[in-house]
Amino acid sequence: MKRATIKDIASQLGVSPSTVSRALNDHPDISDKVKEEVRQVAQALNYHVNLTAVNLRNNRSGLIALIIPEITMFFFPSLIKGIEDVVSANGYQLLVLQSQNALAGEVANLRVCADLSIDGILISLSAQTKDLDHLQELEAAAVPIVLFDKSIEQTQFDQVMIDDEEAAYQCVSYLIKAGATKICAVLGDQQLQMSQLRHQGFQRAMVEANLLSNGPNSTYIIHAKSQDQCTSLVIDWLGNYEVDAFFCMSDELSAGVYAAINTTTGDNKHKPKVIGISDGHLPSILSPNLDHYRHSGYELGHLAAERLILRLKAGRKQTIAPETLILEGQLVVG
User: Fold this and answer.
1) What is the CATH number of domain 59-162+298-329?
2) pLDDT of res. 107
3) Maximum Cα–Cα distance for the chain, whole Å?
4) Which of the four CATH numbers 1.20.120.530, 3.40.50.2300, 3.40.190.10, 3.40.50.11320 does domain 164-294 have?
5) Rounded CA gap, 64 and 42, in Å?
6) Mean pLDDT, 10 residues at a time, over the chain (334 residues)?
7) Residues near 262 by beta carbon (within 8 Å), at least 6 away in sequence
8) In terms of C-beta density within 10 A (0-12 exposed, 13-18 middle, 19 or more buried), how is residue 139 classed?
């Protein structure tokens, strides 16, 4: 069926298209009687505003792109909800793109953004990303860009993060205070700055407790890129080493560790203690509940989107200096 236009409404009412346009926009020069007639005909014809045409007139696409490594069942659903709430409230549509955790995918996603004249970009970097050269074309075109969650050391763009090192430090310090001495850190891809920072937090807590000097079997590091790989690696570790606690840097890895522990150990008295960094959803459904450092995916996405909207409202001649915004978290025990 042909889409109804302003001209169709004008033709049926015997008025000009400009009169219809002003009536639909509640212009004060148009009488209430004419406005009501226009609304009735528009409804009868199933007329909807052509947002593409409106955005073209306003020199905007109305689209904000979200580029993430991949959508997993943890963290990202609540993060996307936080972003979507801000984006839609400000009259934009959200386009979600996945890089498959690869630089090539990230570059391809940015090409899509350029081709669609995206108004702004929120991006969580891939594990392979070592610099931001591939963002230069869009930055030169004055497209606002905000990095979040997974980033690299940089001062060129706004970024919204948690304090990765401090989060890990608090988790491991809690394990040590609870009596753990043989603690295994389960971390993600070694190329990620996030993994490196959380490793540093783990080490800082262990050094302060003088546990790194207790011999080769007192501390362990496992790097896993998926939940299944994590489970397999932890099962091997539990079969060869004595471990009394695990620190996990993400929900995905915490789930992998729980699966391994439940596969290899018996009663709860002999199960290693586990703590992880989480947005809080997984811990409540695990048994026993997972102690965790809580950082909200929803709040992180909300804050990153708000920062992008601030940039969009400031326009091309903005003078706002790039900032790193740190989202506070808290230790949740028991």
Assistant:
1) 3.40.50.2300
2) 97
3) 90
4) 3.40.50.2300
5) 29
6) 76 85 80 87 77 55 93 91 96 95 96 92 96 93 94 94 96 96 93 94 93 61 93 91 92 94 72 92 84 94 96 78 93 87
7) none
8) middle
